[in-house]
Design the sequence.
């Protein structure tokens, strides 16, 4: 079992947890099934959309049943530890940041390995990271995560571009993987700490 | 023409009707096209998502034009009989229950026949049954059907699991099909009658 | 570079613009990334859904990187010319009409060339034209464009049917393409001018 696989599992855990918490916070009457369904879709959504767009079959979770059991175990633990988890909001934000960072680079690598151009690979990496959350937000009728103020999907796209630049410079793959993941985490943390945001699109109203 | 095919057509009719009624109830100004579009997407959505996730082409409705004409005929009849149909809410709920029960087992069988593991087949069966309705609810800005209180998607997942257990026990296929469909219908009816619901995910607030 | 390719690029420009404007109008705090993301998804959504449903890989924008750069350039120009563009609402409506007309016929042709029946090709043509906008509306929590009063998706479906009828009559392809696009534009303009709408589905409430 490679380090990368362990990190992917970790990313899956984080996303499943975020889905289950999102729906149960929104609607305190939410039952276990609704929480589990939302957690599942959040965890597999981004990667599935990437693979469907690339025509790469079978989907990762269809092939590797470990992911399904990881998600189920995560949902159960999230439900049992609910009271404790919602007090960990700050820590959770760090986990989510870790999740999108890992999925961005994993997704970018997979797209590259299927032979698409670097620009498309970067977009696919970003999709892997954020689309699970977008689907979660559509299901729960929230404003999609990528329209919120903070630097989020843009950090993923920047990180994917950074990774691709390092590939061009023939940086060793494992080093590149780790440095790029840390790069995305750094952008996110700096943006959150200093409350940074991107320039407004519609400037004339300001 | 097999019994199963007739049942699939019946399921398609039920879903097309539920889509057309949902959008026209929500917005009484809804025109024929909007009702037809929603009915169409509701009827084909679950099966299409299953086949896309399994990489199984062509999609059922792309290959078998009968389904399209069935849907069109259903929409026309639904519009003409609107006044009469909305008084049949209770009966309609039975039809919807029949629809999801049939689609669950048909979807589980199809996924199994494509060689996925039983766990994945059960999820695909549930997706076939409920995702058309989820897409309908997203289009019409409703809370997705699977977050409503009643036992709905969970009945499908349970029924699919039941079916797969019977496959393991080498129960004859047609018997298994019928018994499993009846099993889902039974769960739904019992849940509706006694107003059952699953345990809440977020227990501490109660 | 064929005339048709130029028209497709033009359609892509129109849809990218409509996505970026939609999200920034809805939320005046929207940043460049959110506007760009929405513009991108609006421009590629319809064609991607068509190709995924037909199992036709690679997706057009994955294969032809020109489309991505066209979209990026469009977003940048839209942001810079925002003040000027929102005063052009009327003109913009014409552009959108041009966009859906082109995408309908291009999508219908592509589906036909993949061997589906004419009925399915017409639906795929309509999906190509309107689904990008539907995804845009779901992301921004608007009522999907096809449920609004005006004749919109129905004009596309009618135009696709017209095109297919002319194919049956063996009309020369380029002539057919141009005439069919003009036919859709005409329906839309007449519907807008005379404020036409389709019959209501739920007639008993009127």
Sequence:
């Amino acid at each position: 079992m490679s380090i990368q696989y362990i990190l992917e599992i970790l990313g899956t855990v984080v996303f499943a947890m975020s889905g289950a918490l999102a729906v149960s916070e929104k609607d305190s009457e939410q039952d276990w099934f609704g929480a589990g369904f939302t957690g599942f879709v959040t965890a597999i959504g981004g990667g599935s959309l990437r693979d469907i767009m690339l025509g790469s079959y079978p989907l990762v979770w269809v092939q590797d049943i470990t992911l399904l059991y990881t998600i189920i175990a995560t949902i159960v633990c999230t439900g049992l530890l609910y009271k404790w988890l919602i007090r960990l909001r700050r820590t959770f934000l760090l986990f989510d940041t870790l999740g999108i960072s890992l999925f961005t680079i994993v997704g970018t690598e997979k797209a590259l390995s299927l032979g698409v151009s670097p620009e498309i690979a970067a977009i696919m990496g970003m999709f892997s990271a954020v689309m699970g959350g977008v689907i979660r937000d559509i299901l729960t009728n929230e404003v999609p995560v990528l329209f919120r103020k903070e630097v989020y999907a843009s950090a993923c796209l920047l990180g994917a571009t950074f990774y691709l630049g390092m590939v061009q410079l023939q940086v060793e793959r494992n080093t590149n993987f780790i440095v790029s993941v840390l790069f995305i985490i750094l952008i996110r943390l700096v943006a959150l700490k200093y409350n940074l945001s991107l320039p407004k699109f519609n400037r004339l109203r300001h």
Remarks:
- DSSP finds nine helices and no strands in chain C.
- Residues 113 and 135 of chain C are 26 Å apart (CA to CA).
